[in-house]
């Protein structure tokens, strides 16, 4: 069951599930301004045993506020969000400062060659170009959380 927090990710709002997350699950937060992409990621992640999406945001500013409250293990962060409420490059160092134990995986349409080094310098654990397989993304979440990939359902 989803509880809207204020709008949808596309307008900078966030969506947080009702409190029923198993305490042993890897807690994942998604920050992207494309609601369809957020839903795809949520579906793939929640289909995996031991992974749970604890929230979503559609802007950098809302992401930083939500992760401080929700304390996820892993944050999937888009670098470029077109909603004028701060982007992932603004959010990344703030996430790292607020929750240094959380791992940030950047998901971006920009090539790794173009933005990967900059994202890693700002504290990203991994950089994945959008268009990568869901298996690659789920594997990166597990690796960032210190788990080995189970192979996943999505290939």
List key phrases describing it.
alpha/beta; disordered C terminus; 35% helix; seven-stranded mixed β-sheet; 155 residues; 7 strands; Rossmann fold
Beta-strand proportion: 15-25%
Structural class, judged by helices and strands?
Answer: alpha/beta
- State the CATH superfamily name: Response regulator
CATH architecture descriptor text: 3-Layer(aba) Sandwich
- How many domains make up the 3D coordinates? 1
Tally of individual helices: 5
Helix content: 25-40%
> What order do the strands of the largest sheet run in, or round the barrel if closed?
1-2-4-3-5-6-7
Give the SSE string. EEEHEHEHEHEH
Query: Tell me, what's the shape?
Result: globular
Largest sheet: 7 strands, mixed
Regions with pLDDT < 50 over 5+ consecutive residues? 1-11, 15-20, 148-155
CATH topology: Rossmann fold
Number of strands: 7
CATH class, please? Alpha Beta
* First and last CA, distance: 27 Å
Give the radius of gyration. 14 Å
What do you see in this structure?
- The protein has 155 residues and is α/β, with parallel strands linked by helices.
- The chain has one domain (2-144): 3-Layer(aba) Sandwich (Rossmann fold), CATH 3.40.50.2300.
- The protein contains 5 helices and 7 strands; from the N terminus they run E-E-E-H-E-H-E-H-E-H-E-H.
- Helix 4 (112-121) links the parallel strand 6 and strand 7 (126-129).
- The longest helix has 12 residues, at 35-46.
- The two termini are 27 Å apart.
């Amino acid at each position: 069951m989803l509880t809207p927090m204020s709008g949808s990710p596309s307008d900078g709002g966030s969506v947080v599930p009702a409190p029923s997350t198993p305490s042993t699950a890897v807690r994942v937060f998604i920050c992207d301004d494309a609601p369809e992409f957020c839903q795809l990621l949520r579906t793939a992640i929640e289909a995996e045993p031991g992974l749970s999406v604890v929230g979503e945001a559609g802007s950098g500013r809302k992401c930083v506020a939500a992760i401080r409250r929700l304390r996820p293990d892993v944050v999937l962060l888009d670098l470029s969000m077109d909603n004028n409420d701060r982007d992932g490059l603004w959010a990344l160092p703030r996430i790292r400062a607020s929750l240094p134990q959380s791992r940030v995986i950047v998901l971006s349409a920009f090539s790794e060659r173009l933005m990967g080094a900059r994202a890693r310098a700002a504290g990203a654990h991994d950089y994945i170009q959008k268009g990568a397989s869901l298996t690659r993304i789920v594997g990166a979440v597990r690796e960032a959380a210190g788990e080995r990939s189970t192979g996943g359902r999505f290939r």
